[in-house]
Amino acid sequence: MSKAATLEKPAADKAKKPKLRIATTSLSGCFGCHTSFLDIDERILQLVEIAEFDRSPITDIKHCGPCDIGIIEGGVCNAENVHVLREFRANCKTLIAIGACAINGGLPALRNHLDVTDCLTRVYCDRAGGKNHTVPNDPELPLLLEKVHPINEVVRIDYFVPGCPPSGDAIWKFLTDLITGRMPRLDHELLRFD
Ligand code: SF4
Q1: Is the peptide bond before 165 cis (omega within 30 degrees of 0)?
Q2: CB of 33 closer than 6 A to ligand 1?
Q3: Taking the model in full, what pTM does it have?
Q4: CA of 16 to the centre of ligand 1 (A)
């Protein structure tokens, strides 16, 4: 595991600077990219020295507030995804698409060549094996879009980290570059396109 990059800062710096705020969310994703994020393992202790989490699966914050960095996993498959993504864009100075689903729709986009109504009927009615089964239509359920979209088709994205998922080392290298003011750059061995 590559641990060369570090976020250590001088003590005086830590005392003066407010912590960075980071938000993360999963739209139409499987949480695999978030799991990969946690693969930074004990390096997360360095991260929380200088940063705190806003909306994220590891907090109970429901809406993204003003943040320095927003990290988005997953593509856009429903109306709620659009709302959450726009909220992140409005509040995050830098927005990062992490993983294949956010970058090109990924696995969920495999449904793009199918008709959504046919899919729902097949799953909830035909396969359920009875005439009395219906497609769920509770108003609380987010409305599905006809297609699954990469997130950059909805809002402007500053950076893209490829992979399904990118490794914890790749995420760490990317974040340490960004936070310490270097141009984020992943060497060949950290780049993953599957
Ligand atoms: S890119 Fe892969 S790991 Fe990440 S959310 Fe999509 S399917 Fe899951």
Answers
A1: yes
A2: yes
A3: 0.90
A4: 37
